[in-house]
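Researcher: Please translate sequence to structure tokens.
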Amino acid sequence: METHVPLISTRTKGPLGLAHLPRLWLKMRLSAKGKLAEDYRAGEGGFDGLLLTTLGIESTAAIAFIKTSQPGYLTFEAWVKENANPESLTSEAISAFNNRILSFPKPEPGRTEMLELLGLPSSDKEWLGTDLNDLDDWHGVHLSLLDEV
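Model: Translation complete:
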């Protein structure tokens, strides 16, 4: 079965304005169909877990909704609005979450491992998680296309 790297960036926001929510939706949709590329998680841990916890939504509930309903993104976002803690959806709370997730530095040892995988020098540059995750996604797509040759 063909698998896919989720190419929606954590930086991407839907109408609700939450960073990472479109990526979370895509990863869970792909995972529900067995099409999420290996080494990607969907709905638990990392930015996925942080977002769902911030919203007050259990990962199992979100995963079950995605699996049974197979929603488009806007339908998923509407479900999030209905199921999230209302305080997590204020403009202030969304802004605080976006700032937190979009300014989060990639922690060790993952930072060094990813720099080595990508062939980037280990410098004093503070790599944000979103930067390295995007580069890793693009690298994964590149490798998958090489396999087709």
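Researcher: Any highlights?
Model: Helices lie at 21-32, 46-55, 59-69, 73-83, 91-102, 110-118, 129-147.
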